[in-house]
Amino acid sequence: MKKLNIGLFGFGTVGRGLFDVIGRIGSDEVSIRRICVRNKRKDRGVRACFTDNPDDIFSDPDINVIVELIDEADASFEYVCRALRHGLPVVSGNKKMIAAHLPELIALQEETGAALLYDASACGSIPVIRNLEEYYDNDLLTSVKGILNGSTNYILWRMFQDGISYAEALRQAQELGFAESNPSLDVDGWDSLFKLIIITVHAFGIYVRPEDVFRFGISSLNDQDVRFAREKGRRIKLVGHVEKLPDSSLIMSVMPQLLSPNKYIYSVDEEFNGVVIKGLFYGKQFMFGRGAGGYPTGSSVLSDISALKYDYHYQYKKIHAEEHPEYTLDTKFRIYYRYSRPEHLAILPFSEILEQYTSTTDNYVVGLVSLADLHAHQKELEEAGVFVAAYPRD
Amino acid sequence: MKKLNIGLFGFGTVGRGLFDVIGRIGSDEVSIRRICVRNKRKDRGVRACFTDNPDDIFSDPDINVIVELIDEADASFEYVCRALRHGLPVVSGNKKMIAAHLPELIALQEETGAALLYDASACGSIPVIRNLEEYYDNDLLTSVKGILNGSTNYILWRMFQDGISYAEALRQAQELGFAESNPSLDVDGWDSLFKLIIITVHAFGIYVRPEDVFRFGISSLNDQDVRFAREKGRRIKLVGHVEKLPDSSLIMSVMPQLLSPNKYIYSVDEEFNGVVIKGLFYGKQFMFGRGAGGYPTGSSVLSDISALKYDYHYQYKKIHAEEHPEYTLDTKFRIYYRYSRPEHLAILPFSEILEQYTSTTDNYVVGLVSLADLHAHQKELEEAGVFVAAYPRD
């Protein structure tokens, strides 16, 4: 078993969490040798070897693992590629970068033989990628559905629990360090979407570009929506969802859902994440754990680092399978659609309207609409400030 | 990737489940070539090559995987050893055999280089062994606690849900095929104990003999106990528990627990299993899935079989670690102890009695007692027909 000397990029919430976790377990098999940050002079109150020059990491012959935990996707991609080309294994937590570049990163791993692990990128402390890759690795898998973003879940939980406004709940999530530095990544569903793209590769063996998936966030959620959900005995959660239909086509979405209490993820509160993996024969599996915060995510990064001690790498078995499901937007969703101005109803071509409510302030319909139409009108929906949530019958 | 030709021992609920699952997915990478059963003439309504002679399996040069799903632990151990000595990888679901012989089986795997996988033995469809082995593989793990037996959970759920008697609930579990052929294995806690022994090896790297662990089942549970739990807003579940204490000693137990609603496993109903993995930094992880029945367990066996395609084997990293926690019975439990005859109170040397209730039919105390004393008096407790449950403060 080899000793791992880490070259770390980034010292934000997760980087700091990893640093503390490694310090606390006091292992002599893993140590952080050098940390590359933007400003090496900033006082971080820790004893470590900081640099602002990536070359200091790549030219250090003792460093045999790169851990990349920075925010910027472009720099992240550059460092990861550079490391893999050096033959250095990499652990990354940057879901945006991975979701954008996964096909190239898979090719680069195969070309160089160096491993890239990123379980921490997908659901904080839940080992969802590793399980999809290693355990749910046969044709039995039918869907993966989950609460993939801790900070929006925290916001929604506070809104439902304490009746506070969206703005106040967001502020609290940011104070607790759950939210990304750019809140749009969380609240507009981007973070969940990137995770869903990565999950889909490991669950079903196909890569779908983020821009080809319907994504809708929670930033337009208002009191009327919360009231509607409460009246129906439901809760609103931001859900990422990929499902193989019986004809082997594959649908994906990231959007709020009105969940009834009989769903496992109904009870996933605070900043937790929860993932339901459904299979033809085993029924539903539910995995649940902390989805945000430096220590849980740092622990998850450390699990990936530990796996490198044994030369673990993803085999992308399903990518290499002979048959793949085909991604489609050709399916109908039953949705709750709340709008303020009457002309906003026309944004979506509903194939059927099942309920309609109008008032002097807010209006809503419950109706059927195709996923393709949701996707085609995503930008108009966001600009109109309406709220859209899947509203399944059960 | 190689084609797997299975020699299958046993065609009970799980064997049949595996047969159906493999038939349904129609993979050309996995097939069942021969099935060894006690009575090869019995009509099972399926097209397969049955034999009653184990030699027919071991002498078939095309068979390259042994799957062992029989009830009898002695025969199971014989076939598994024979297969490993032949250099054939084995998948087994026999927790009793594995729990009894794990040290020899680990040694035999290392000697022969052939793999033995048994994730299906531990929690039906939940991949708990694989995750403990591969993901929670560092010093951060502090405890594993769970509902490990589907049929007792089904029985307890029916008793609490519908107010039916223990005997009636047991009968229904047996009708549904959830119970082992010998109900004592389930209801007296043996099945949970065997799984806990296996989990402990993969979680903490030490093997503890089943007879060294305090085990208490649910067969003496009566109306008074159910009433007590209800009055306190709790539910009774049969819980297997292993925990590393801050001084690095390790405690284990299998016994009923009075669980409050703030515990994840409080809500694990029907025949489901649920496992909470707790770590120093990531907090609690919860995994949940079907713990009994032919299809879920058959799917889990198939996941192990699929792993053999890639020559996966457990590395028993924690067994090979330099330091191990030390197993101890030296800890105190707060328990609920219900007895009918006054002299039964003296069986256990309580260090403190916190509550006492007497009536013309049933009596109980809530008190503190050492795990060592529970273990020392296990047989008397069982013979006296009393009921014992852990009753933690929160």
Would you tell me the structural class of the helices and strands of chain A? alpha/beta
Stretches of chain A where pLDDT is under 50 for at least 5 consecutive residues are none
Average of pLDDT of chain A: 93
Fraction of residues in helix of chain A: 25-40%
Strand percentage of chain A lies at: 15-25%
Give a quick account of the main beta sheet of chain A: strands, pairing sense, barrel closure.
Answer: 7 strands, mixed
N-to-C terminal Cα separation of chain A, in Å? 51 Å
How would you name the oligomeric state of the polypeptide chains in this document? homodimer
Count of β-strands of chain A: 17
Description:
The structure is a homodimer of 394-residue chains. By secondary structure, chain A is of the alpha/beta class. Chain A has helices spanning 13-25, 54-58, 73-85, 95-112, 119-123, 128-134, 150-162, 166-175, 183-187, 190-204, 223-231, 294-309, 371-376, 378-384; strands spanning 4-9, 30-36, 50-51, 65-68, 90-92, 116-117, 141-147, 214-215, 235-244, 249-259, 272-279, 283-290, 326-327, 332-339, 352-357, 363-370, 387-390. In chain A, helix 1 packs across helix 12, helix 3 (73-85) packs parallel to helix 4 (95-112) and helix 7 (150-162) crosses helix 8. The model of chain A has no long low-confidence stretch (mean pLDDT 93). Strand 12 of chain A pairs antiparallel with strand 12 of chain B.
